[in-house]
């Protein structure tokens, strides 16, 4: 691994350093502090354990012989809380019994006294690199598990959607037959019964719309792509949201002429834009501004930027916002499929989404889409 990369990895970790000798502690702490993200120090095992509980550092480095509580006892208590935290011990011992006890506790690495600053840094760097790789593997494993889980959900949705749709066909069909029969009967109560049928048909319509969303999420419905202009899709989406947005949300646009065409399914892309806009609407209950703009670059990319002045998102929400069925609004009123469907649609178009947001500072969604091959060929000619 390159030196610069190792340095960058160190800058991302927090270290707890426990040493009772003031001279050693101050010397090594000064050497380490400018190289790591955070450094916490303690003079004995008891204080070190309290620092660990309070700060949850990524790596623990400790001396063995200390007053109040020794390093191995502290390490054992730390491992009980989180056995994944690497513990490095500084020791003058070099006998089998010591190493056997250390292994049983779960000590990860050793630094023998007298401590040389460069060796001290090298061992911590090695542990930081190993920790980084381990976390990357865990993230990859989680991503694989999530992917397999989503594939299973998608398969389940396909089967359920098909069967549920057949049931709805029967409901809607027979409701229509009842309406036809009732229209031939003269009775003052007929109008009330017809209102009941309206409710049945509207409910079935909403259920059918939900099925369409679910099938889109499961990628069952293929894209019908054509060369289209992104501004036409955006303008139609704005017409739609203009009918449903409250007056206290101001909509501004910047849609320059001359953008290259994209190869896309206009209806699906419009749905993706609407989902983002509706998310922005929910983020501005007291009103605000929604700005939609389009642009392109020289790298064959056309983009849609949708910015709101709403409440913004915290890091946890940003991390989970594209997860299926994730919602901050409650399942009774919101299914949490909108942004997940949007991501699915954009991926079908070989595009990607960037999200910039902070609590209290609004949110910006930028959807990047490749221009059509025909448009690219025109530019090349």
Would you kindly provide a written description of the structure presented here, covering whatever features stand out?
This protein has 381 residues and is of the alpha/beta class. It has helices spanning 3-10, 22-33, 45-55, 71-81, 96-105, 117-182, 190-217, 230-244, 266-282, 315-320, 338-348, 373-380, and strands at 14-18, 38-42, 59-63, 87-91, 109-112, 226-228, 249-254, 262-264, 288-296, 301-308, 352-357, 363-370. The model is unreliable at 330-336 and 376-381 (pLDDT under 50). The longest helix has 66 residues, at 117-182. The chain has 3 domains: 3-115, Response regulator (Rossmann fold, 3-Layer(aba) Sandwich), CATH 3.40.50; 139-217, Signal transduction histidine kinase, dimerisation/phosphotransfer (DHp) domain (Helix Hairpins), CATH 1.10.287; 226-380, Histidine kinase-like ATPase, C-terminal domain (Heat Shock Protein 90, 2-Layer Sandwich). A 5-stranded parallel β-sheet has the order 2-1-3-4-5, with helices on both faces. A 5-stranded mixed β-sheet has the order 7-9-10-12-11, with helices on one face. Strand 11 and strand 12 form a beta hairpin. The chain has 12 helices and 12 strands.
């Amino acid at each position: 691994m390159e030196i610069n990369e190792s340095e960058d990895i160190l800058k991302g970790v927090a270290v707890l350093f426990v040493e009772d000798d003031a001279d050693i502690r101050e010397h090594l702490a000064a050497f380490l502090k400018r190289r790591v993200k955070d450094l916490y120090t303690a003079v004995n095992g008891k204080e070190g354990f309290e620092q660990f509980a309070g700060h949850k550092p990524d790596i623990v480095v400790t001396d063995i012989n200390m007053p109040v509580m020794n390093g191995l006892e502290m390490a054992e208590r730390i491992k009980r809380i989180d056995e994944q935290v690497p513990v490095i011990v500084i020791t003058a011992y070099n006998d089998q019994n010591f190493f056997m006890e250390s292994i049983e506790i779960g000590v990860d690495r050793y630094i023998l006294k007298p401590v040389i600053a460069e060796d001290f840094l090298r061992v911590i760097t090695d542990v930081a690199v190993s920790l980084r790789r381990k976390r990357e593997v865990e993230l990859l494993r989680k991503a694989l598990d999530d992917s397999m889980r989503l594939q299973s959900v998608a398969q389940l949705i396909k089967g359920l959607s098909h069967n549920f749709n057949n049931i709805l066909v029967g409901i809607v069909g027979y409701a229509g037959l009842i309406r036809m029969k009732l229209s031939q009967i003269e009775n003052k109560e007929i109008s009330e019964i017809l209102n009941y049928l309206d409710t049945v048909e509207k409910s079935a319509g909403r259920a059918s719309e939900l099925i369409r969303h679910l099938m889109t999420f499961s990628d069952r419905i293929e894209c019908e792509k054509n060369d289209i202009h992104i501004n036409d899709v955006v303008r139609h989406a704005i017409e739609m949201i203009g009918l449903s947005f409250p007056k206290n949300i101001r909509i501004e646009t910047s849609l320059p002429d001359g953008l290259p065409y994209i190869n896309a399914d206009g209806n699906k892309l419009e749905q993706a834009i609407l989902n983002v806009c509706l998310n922005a609407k929910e983020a501005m209950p007291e009103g605000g501004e929604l700005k939609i703009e389009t642009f392109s670059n020289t790298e064959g990319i056309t983009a849609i930027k949708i910015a709101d002045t709403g409440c913004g998102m915290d890091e946890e929400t940003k991390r989970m916002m594209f997860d299926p069925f994730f919602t901050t609004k409650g399942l009774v009123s919101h299914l949490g499929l909108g942004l997940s469907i949007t991501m699915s649609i954009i991926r079908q178009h070989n595009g990607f989404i960037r999200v910039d947001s902070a609590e209290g500072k609004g949110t910006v969604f930028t959807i990047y889409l490749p221009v059509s091959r025909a448009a690219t060929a025109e530019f090349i000619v």
